[in-house]
């Protein structure tokens, strides 16, 4: 271990991380993420032999956001406001020393992984693949000079059979243009994932802080779909054999962990190539996902972690009511 002081400890391996004991109230940390996510630094604040705060930093291979050079703060946890302030001060200082001009967090290296804080919790219980944090953590970022960088929401749709009159016209137009919608294929699962990956690189490249993921890593990350998600909840839109859009939903596994009937699906991702001839296809995919979920016996859908700008927000508000909000924070460095 290398330390700036006896209190700040830089962790360089999962073994070193496991050797440290978190203080009471600090959630456990999966030390294997240090190897998988490859942060440029991982820091722990250690008081009386216990970890009281921690975070990882990335300053190499970070998303582009001109004119800034972005540094990321992720894997964040703090047991008190005092330790949080000390840790964030260290984090911002090290990012600035490595030529970053904008600190963004929380984000575990890129937007394919966990990022954002829950900032308005609402009355719904937590759901599968959603960020979880105490309300103190976003307040700690705010007190240290971080401000809102991007806003998101989740919304619930209680009627999975609701349709829009305009979708009949969209469906007819798509049929005339040779677009058909099918479920992901079990026999060609990996090939379908590779095509989804190719479309995603185009669809999401202009999204805030988007960073491309390699095909092999993408396929490995989504391989769990094969056993955990009904194939009818992964839809592909093809035009003459070429994929032009996709939609992905998953059952809310946290309901099962709570001993509840799993009656909710999460609409995680919709993507359509940015071509005017595919206008309306995203909404058509959403309706079909919800209708197929209803056929499978699900009662509700959550439109999960939607950015508060853009087409998906407009589509979601036609079917669902927001119940929770999230914030990604940023702070200019050296100003």
Explain the layout of strands and helices.
Elements: E1 2-3, E2 8-10, H1 14-18, E3 21-22, H2 33-37, E4 41-47, E5 50-58, E6 64-65, E7 68-78, H3 81-97, E8 102-105, E9 117-120, H4 136-143, E10 147-157, H5 166-176, E11 179-183, H6 189-203, H7 215-222, H8 225-228, E12 234-239, E13 242-251, H9 253-257, E14 264-272, H10 281-295, E15 300-307, H11 311-316, E16 321-332
Parallel strand pairs: 3-5, 7-8, 14-15
Antiparallel strand pairs: 1-2, 2-4, 4-5, 5-7, 6-7, 8-16, 9-16, 10-15, 10-16, 11-12, 12-13, 13-14
- What is the rounded distance between the termini? 32 Å
Q: Give the ordered list of helices and strands.
A: EEHEHEEEEHEEHEHEHHHEEHEHEHE
Please, what is the CATH homologous superfamily of the largest domain?
A: Gcn5-related N-acetyltransferase (GNAT)
Q: Say what oligomer this is.
A: single chain
Radius of gyration: 21 Å
CATH class of the largest domain: Alpha Beta
- Look at the helices and sheets and give the structural class: alpha+beta
Give the overall pLDDT as a whole number.
92
In CATH, the architecture of the largest domain is 3-Layer(aba) Sandwich
The share of residues in extended strands comes to 25-35%
Large-scale geometry: globular
